[in-house]
Structure formats: structure tokens, C-alpha cells
Amino acid sequence: MAVRVGQEGEELRQFVVPVAYLDHPLFAELLDMAAQEYGFNQKGPIAIPCGVDHFRHVSDVIHSDQGAAAGHRLRHFAACFWSSMRENKIYFWGD
User: Scanning 25, 39, 42, 43, which has the fewest C-beta atoms within 10 Å of its C-beta?
Assistant: First the structure.
């Protein structure tokens, strides 16, 4: 999803962010700022009224959070998978 970022007096820069960011509370705060500043009737990329450096920092935090959450989900899935295999006495050769 494309967004334009910049404060008043700052050149707007365009970024492309994953749609999954929409679920993150920090990105929701940025969208709330955009709605308060510009309303809901924007054409083209959503304009977010914050500094580019701040936006990059928030994006990095969201990216890190999603990576950590993905790792947690993978570990949870693997644990469930191995537990199920043992319960059903499914083993790999060499086990």
C-alpha cells in the first residue's frame, strides 16, 4: 500500500508498506493522525502527517514486531505438529 509521509514544510516522500501493517496499533495511530489532519476523502496514496524519520522508526518497529510474531507462530505450529506426530506414533527414519 502506498503512503505519502511528511510534516508541514517538509517534502512529502512516498513509501510502500505491507497491507499487514494496517493491523498494527502503531500504524493505526498514524492513520488516525491522517484522518484528523486530512479527513477520510483523500485521493491517491494516504498522506500521513509525521516526519519521515519518525515514520521510518515506526515502520522498523512494526517490521520487527511482525518478524517476532511470525517466529512465535512458527514455533507454536511446529510444537503442535511434533506433538501430534508423537501422539499418533509417526516417526521419521532414524528416530
Answer: 43
DSSP codes of every residue in 39-86: -S---SSEEE-S-HHHHHHHHHHHHHHHHHHHHHHHHHHHHHHHHHHH
- Burial of residue 82 (number of CB atoms within 10 Å: 0-12, 13-18, 19+): exposed
The pTM for the full model equals 0.67
Where does 4-51 have alpha helices with state H? 25-38
Rounded Cα distance, 25 and 9, in Å: 27
Contact by Cβ (8 Å): 46, 30:
no
